[in-house]
Amino acid sequence: MDRINAMLVFTRIVDLGGFARAADSLQMPRASVTVLIKQLEAHLGVQLLHRTTRQVSPTLDGAAYYQRCVSLLSDLEEAEGLFRGSQPKGKLRVDMPAAVGRLVVFPALPEFTRRYPLIELEVGLSDRPVDLIREGVDCVVRGGLTMDDSLVARPLVMMDQVTCASPDYLQAHGVPQSLEDLSGHQVVEYFSSVSGKRYGLEFQAGDEVRLIDLPKQVSVNSAEGYLAACMAGYGLVQTPHYHVAQLVREGRLQEVLGDCLPPRLALTALYPQHRQLSSRVRVFVDWLVDLCGRPGSGFRH
User: Fold this and answer.
1) CA-to-CA distance for 226 and 219, rounded, in angstroms?
2) CATH class of residue range 87-159+265-292
3) How far is CA 98 from CA 36, 72, 81, 224, in A?
4) The CATH number of the domain covering residues in 3-83
5) For 127-159, how does the pLDDT look when each residue is reduced to its tens digit (9 = 90+)?
6) Strand order in the sheet with 187-191
7) pLDDT in the model for residue 128
């Protein structure tokens, strides 16, 4: 059995939803497609496809195998393309925080897709931890310190952070002019749904970071919910400047304590070590580095 051909046939069946359509698209006899899938299932020792009179769909094992096949076939095509001198092509799966995607990446993305029209982007927008190997994700963009030594980390930008609150909250509690004025204020608390770690207010004081513990009424575990609670008047928040710049300009949020800034926050692109030679990953991350360094990117430099 030609395993590469078997993987190609299997992915085509999943993509098209049937044996006959896959056989026609590959210009193969339908009987040959059926035999090849039976051989592949016997070789793997699992059932890959649910077959009914109306449709064909992958089993749970089949869905997991499909993702790996797509990645492997794409890598094979890319490796051959290196010697043909062709442009990067194939599917590139990335994941990034929703705000980074919405406010920074997508407004500039047409530039990237015009430059690399053969790359098909699949973009997830989330803050959740992603198992890049198991989920078949090529690259993630994340804020904060990187703790996984198995991943290659490419710095994108050091983001300025600001402290802000809603105008209604500040009218009720007063506008703090110094850290000593924070007595009597409250925060919206951010917590990690994975580690359970909770975040209050932090301020850079020389080479040290000063933590300010304030009471809270609402805690959230997403960046969008964090700002929504702030806009609803539940307290002070600290967030990257790009995330609230438009809201501040519109007067829906107000920056405070401009002389007492929070620590800067790293934004990093992460990808598995075996993806270092992938031209799709390389050109995308190179583009992100350039984008984040531009004056008009949305990040305050």
Assistant:
1) 8
2) alpha beta
3) 42, 28, 33, 8
4) 1.10.10.10
5) 777 777 667 788 999 987 766 777 889 999 999
6) 198-199, 187-191, 216-220
7) 79
